Amino acid sequence: MKKISARAQAIEMSGIRKFFQAAKPDSINMTLGQPDFVTPDHIRNAAIKAIEEGKTGYTFNAGIPELREALSDKFKNENNLHYSPEQIIVTAGAGEALFIAIQSIVDPGDRVLLTDPGFVSYEACIQLAGGKPDFVPLTKDLHIQEDILREKLEGARLLILNSPCNPTGTVESKEKIRSITEAAMDTGVTVLSDEVYEHIIYDAVHASAGTFGEDVITVNAASKTYAMTGWRLGFIAGPPEYMEQCLKVHQYCQTCATSISQYAGIAAYTGDQSCVKMMRDEYKARRDILVSGFHDMGVKFPEPQGAFYAFVPLGKEKTQKVMDAGVIVVPGDAFGPSGAEYARFSYATSRENIMAAIERMRPVLEV
Prior knowledge:
The chain is an alpha/beta fold. It folds into two domains: 6-38 and 274-365, Aspartate Aminotransferase, domain 1 (Alpha-Beta Complex); 41-270, Type I PLP-dependent aspartate aminotransferase-like (Major domain) (Aspartate Aminotransferase, domain 2). The protein has helices at 6-9, 15-21, 41-52, 65-79, 93-105, 120-128, 146-153, 174-186, 240-253, 259-270, 274-296, 316-324, 351-365, and strands at 28-29, 88-91, 111-116, 132-137, 158-162, 190-194, 216-221, 234-237, 309-312, 327-328, 330-331, 343-346. The protein has a seven-stranded mixed sheet with strand order 2-8-7-6-5-3-4, sandwiched between helices. Strand 3 (111-116), helix 6 (120-128) and strand 4 (132-137) form a beta-alpha-beta unit. Helix 5 runs parallel beside helix 6 (120-128). The relative contact order is 0.18. The model has no long low-confidence stretch (mean pLDDT 96).
C-alpha cells in the first residue's frame, strides 16, 4: 500500500466537481460557477497578438509590470484601495491567491474564521496549512451572524470574508463590512477578503474590506468578471510584509501566471468595460427567471443580490428528487454542515436551460 501524507488524506475532493462530473448528457447542469459567455473579443485578440509576437516565456514572478500597473489603477478607481504595483502579485487564478495567502500567514494550530456555509476551497486551504477552521454561522436570510463572529475573533489569526458570497449570493452591506473589519483590526485578526464576484451585483453595492483597515489582504480575479475562468488569471494585494512572503510561496509552486493570460489581462482591465455590464444584466435576468419560478412553486428564499447562485432550502429529499428529474445541482452540505438542507443552483446557464429546469422541477416541488 502506498504511503500518503496525512494532510492530503485530511481533505476531500470538491463536492461541486463530484456532482458536475456525475451529470448525464440529457441533464440540465446547474452546478459549476462558470460564466457561459465567451471571453470578449478584445481580450482574446490581445492574447492572440501576444502569441504571434512570441511573448511566451516566463514573466516576472509577480507578473508583468504593465498588468500590475493596470491592477493598481483598478484598485484605486473601483475600490478606493491604494495598492502600489509592488504590492500586487498576479496568480494562476484566485484559487492560487487564496492558497499562497493562507500558506504565508497561517501556522499549524492557528484558528481561521470562515462562514458555514461558505466556499469549498477555504476549509481545505486552511487544513493544508495546518490551521484550524472555525465556522461562523449565517442568519436565516444568509448573512453573517456578526454577534457570534465577534465572540470568536479573540485569539484567531485570520478571518475570511467573501462578498458577494459563493454559495449564497449574499452581499454584505458597506456598514457591515466596515463593522466586521474594524472589529478584526481591534483584535489583531488579519482579514482575507475574497472579492471575485464584485462586479456581479444587482440590488446592492460592493464594499472592499481593505478600505476599513490596513491588516487586510484582497483577492480577486478576471475569471468571473470577464468570463476568463480557464485563463487562470487572479491577483492578490496587501501589506508589503505579507506580499513578500506570498511571493516566495508563489514562485516555488507556480513561478508565474501564464504569460499569454497576463497580456490578455492587460486588455481586460484597460479596455472596453461594456462587456461587464452586458454579462451582469444577463445574469440578473436569469436570476429573476429562476427566483420567480421557485416562488411560483411555493419555494421561498432570500433573493440573491450578487454572484450567480441561488441557495435554495429544498431539504435533502427534494434535492435528490430534483436531481432524479434531470436537474443537477450541488447539495448544500458541500459548502459546510449548515448547508445540509439547501441546494446551490448556478444560473450561469442560458435562460432556456433555466426555464426547462423549472418545468422539470415543477412536478416534484410544486405545493
